[in-house]
Structure formats: structure tokens, C-alpha cells
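Morning!

This is the sequence you dropped in the shared folder:
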Amino acid sequence: MTPNWSRNFASVDEIARHLNECGESFATELSARIDIGIYAQKILLNAERFEAWSNGMLVGFLAMYCNDDKLKSAFITNVSVLEDWRGRGIAGTLLEQCITHADEKGFGTIQLEVEAGNMAAVAVYGKFGFVPLGGGQSTLIMKLDLGAKK
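The structure's back. C-alpha cells below.
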């Protein structure tokens, strides 16, 4: 089954529900690191949201902050897909949509932070041209230069 795609449609409750359902898939469970309700509200108010839906359920979600107009750098704060929907290219389609959006808005770079041990996610980001910049003990900062994609 192919999901339906939307942008900036999900409510704060739908975002929080999705994040809670995906939270266990992170190496450190999401709810152990942040208050999901506050995070969902911040995303709703400040991020561009790219969404995959099926039968009224948010099955894939990407949130990107595009508010650094001075440096023209966007930041992906979340990419998540419900477990039953993984392996269907949803994360890749959401990445394509956000990269196109950032490029159309004139942003020069997109950065993200990923758990260093999440090799599957690092590989997906690498396929889209993100390169590692460094990071902490457990995280890796990756960057995509949109100018290099042209």
C-alpha cells in the first residue's frame, strides 16, 4: 500500500502519537531524552513538516527547521517511520521532498544529527549526499551542500 503525502497537515496530537510510536526505535528511546508533547508543539510551530499517511494514520514524518535565514542552513530535527512501514522508501521520499523544499527556498545547506550507531540511517542519508562532519560520542552531524547537487 502506498501512503498519501502531505505537508504541514498533522496536528500536535498526531505528531506526538507518531513520535511516541516510533520512540522505541531510537537507540536511546525518544521519551527518555525529551518531553514528546513539548517537542511536538515546537515542531508544529517552527518546522516544515513532510508527512506520509495511511488510513488517517501518520506513518512517516520528517520535520525540518528552515529558520536560519542568515546562514541559509536548514536543520532536519526528525525522520521517523512506523515499524510496519519501514523498507518501503518512505524515509527516502520524505528526504527528497524536504531537500527540494529547502533548495526552492534558497537554502545552501541542510544539516542533521543522527545516532552514530544507526548505520541504516547514516547509509540512507549518505545516499542523498549527506556527509559526516563529526559529532559527539554517540551522535554524528551530517551535512548536505545543496549547491553541490546542481
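Headline: The two ends are 33 Å apart (CA to CA).

More detail when I'm at my desk.
O.
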